[in-house]
Structures are given as structure tokens and as C-alpha cells.
Amino acid sequence: MPFFVLAIAVQVALVIHVIKTGRDRLWIWVLLMAPLIGGLAYLLLELMPEWRRSAQAQTLRKKMVDITDPHRNLKQAQGQLRRNETTKNLITMAEECMNKGLFEEAIGFYTRALKGQYASDPLLLEGLARAQFGGQDYPACRQTLEDLIAANPDYQSKIGHVLYARSLFELGEREAALKEFTALSDYHATALVKYHLGELLSQSNRPTDALNQWRSVLEQENAWDPTGDSDQPWLDKAAARIKACQTH
């Protein structure tokens, strides 16, 4: 009896799915006249192809490819670039290099792309700055971003602003970094931004304000980071700083 009830429930669910998704109504008759075979046919011919196209399935396939052939995308980008050195292919190659932590190589490809009509392109300059920051060349990153704004004064980018503020932070330019992170906290209060602002406030002998910033990382909603990077490192760092403050 339980199996019979389950079979009926599945049959009804599939019929409802046919109606809701606007599929050929012939499937309703197939499912009603031959529940078991019809249900299997519907799964194989209608649902499985849809699942294969789903975002989750694509993500899973990408992860499997990354495991079995971790350099596949990099090799494909190299092949495309050898066949045709376009700006698009140079950017793709640079991004694949950054994904693998090959920042010096990425800098080279972005530099090659920054020619002619693209010599002051803001997206390319921002990409170059990301590669320079990843390679810990903070003076070059800062200079690239300043060149970007000089050539494109109306360009606005949260990613670029964060990069500039972090470069100042890494260069030890506390007052300038504090100014930039304070501005960022007004419109782009990510966990990263709030954590760094806390550090700068602490260095400026404002321990209470610093503690409030670190607490906000853990206790308040953080803005979404457009880079897609995880907030977890900054959550952990903020928790450690709060704990250190409480032990003193």
C-alpha cells in the first residue's frame, strides 16, 4: 500500500509539472496510461536534459573539470591567444593567470592589452591594478589607479576604490588610507572594508571606534563584495581582534 500511494503521488506530481511548465499535454496521457514507463520516459526525455543545463549542474561540471584538468581553461586561453592576439584574448589570458596566482604573467598580458585605443581603458587599467595588488606591488597598483582616474575622471568602481584604499594601507599611509576606508564605509561597507577601518582607527588611538567596527563585521549585515571573495577571513580576523581587546 505505501508503494502504491507513493507511485500515485509521483504520478500526480509529474502531471502537475507538465501543466505548470507548459509542456506538451500528450505527456499527461502517457503518465496516466503508463505510470511507471511514462514517468521514466518523462524523467529521461524532459527533466534530465533540463537538469544538465541548470546552473547548479554547470557549476558541478566545472568543479569536476577543475579537479580532473586544473589547467584546462589556462591551456584553452593560451591556444586562443596563439591563434589570434586580440584584446579580448589577452584579457582572458590575464584573468586565467590571476586565477592560478600567476600575477607577474597577468601583469604582462594586461600591459600588452593597454595599447592604441585601449591605452587608457578603465577596465583594463583596473585589471592591471588587480594583478599588481595580487603580486604585492602596491606602489605600482596605486599609480595605475591614479592614472586610471586621471584619464577617466568620471569612472566609478567599488573594486577599484577598495584596491586603492588597500594599497595605501599596505604602503603604511595611514591618514590617506583612513580617509578612503571611511568614504568606502558610507556606501560599500563590506566585511573587508569594516575590518580595515577598524585597524586604522586602532592605529589612530581610537580603540572604542575600532572595536565597534570589528563588532559590526560580526553583528551587522555586510555589503556584498563584487569580487566574490569570501567574507570568512575578515570575520575570523575581526573575532580575533575583539578577543584580544577583551583580554586586556
Give the helix level as a range of percent: over 70%
Q: How many distinct beta strands?
A: 0
Our count of helices gives 14
Backbone shape: flat
Total number of distinct structural domains? 3
Tell me about the largest β-sheet. none
**Cα gyration radius (Å):** 26 Å
| Strand-residue proportion | under 5%
Mean pLDDT: 87
How far from one another are the termini? 68 Å
Helix and strand succession?
A: HHHHHHHHHHHHHH
Contiguous low-pLDDT stretches (5 residues minimum) are none
Structural class determined from secondary elements: mainly alpha
Transmembrane segments: 25-45
Keywords: Membrane, Transmembrane, Transmembrane helix
InterPro entries: TPR-like_helical_dom_sf, UCP030959_TPR_rpt-cont
Organism: Simiduia aestuariiviva
Keywords:
248 residues, mainly alpha, 3 domains, transmembrane helix, Cardiolipin synthase N-terminal domain-containing protein, UCP030959_TPR_rpt-cont, TPR-like_helical_dom_sf
Provide an overview of this structure.
This protein has helices spanning 2-20, 26-33, 35-53, 55-68, 72-83, 87-99, 103-113, 122-134, 138-151, 158-170, 174-187, 191-203, 207-219, 232-247. The protein is 77% helix and 0% strand. It is an all-alpha fold and 248 residues long. The relative contact order is 0.05. The longest helix is centred in the first third of the chain and has 19 residues, at 2-20. The chain contains 14 helices and no strands. The termini are far apart. It has three domains: 2-64, no CATH class; 70-135; 183-248, no CATH class. It is flat and about 75 Å long.
